[in-house]
Fold this protein.
Amino acid sequence: MKKIILFLFLFSTFNFLVQRTIGLWPKLSTSVYAANPSLTPTPTKEANKPTNTDIINDLKDRIASRVAELKLVEKRGLIGIVTDVSDTQISISDLQNNTRFIDVDELTKFSSPSAKGSFGISDVTKGSKIGVLGLYNKQSRRTLARFVDVLSLPKSVNGVISSKDEENFTLTVASENSRKTTVDIEKVTKTFSYTKEGGLIKSGFSKIKGNEHVIIVGFQDIKDKNKIIASRILVFPEIPKDPRIIIADPALSSNEDVTPSTGSGKKLTPITR
């Protein structure tokens, strides 16, 4: 019986102390924060949070800047002869003899029809004819290249056949200013002949004769700048030789002046004063 009374007494005492403490806690908290205002809790607030107006204005500025940038840049293609080349820049002389500056970066792609392996800016040499496709900046007047291709454009020769090598299947064509061009005939070469009566007919290497007027279209030999690999040959047998063109072998000339004979084997010498 004494143990039960003692237990009830202790339990009542503990319950009283707990309720007392809970009742004093709000007042104690208020007094502590009142004594030290720096400890007073403040509601959380997002500082410098952008408003909808700020977001809209920033978007407008970005769009205006991008539009202005797009107006200064346009896609453009160029063709020219390389005059200078470095690790990041190529200078070319275009078809109007204007100097153009080409910038290259890690995205620029290079190609060449004669390249057997990888090809890059280090393989581009002075004097090469290249085609460039990239982004042209109107303000700086520079082009950021995206594609750089070494071009192998066809060449044409207009002249007279001065010699013919039937063993090696080559022709030597004489043009003005005593220029000689070696023409290599391949299996893919197409040869045609044009006459007033017959028109344009298919011909061949064996039918080509010396001193005939020809127009040849082909590609320059990489190893020999004075040699052309012919793709098309057009022969004009009825067109007389241009007197300004001097052929190497006079025996090939079919239009040379003939000295008349008396019939006795002696040639007449024209009288000149």
